[in-house]
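Hmm, what's this shape?
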Amino acid sequence: VKDDSSNLLLYQRTIAKYNFWKFKFVALKN
């Protein structure tokens, strides 16, 4: 269970970082 939760946290962090950079990239393009 502990491994699953840490993997989920890492996954959420990766998604958040991806969304952040995608948003930044789109904002710079406009």
In short: The mean pLDDT is 91. Residues 2-29 form the longest helix (28 residues). The two ends are 43 Å apart (CA to CA). The chain has one domain: 1-30.
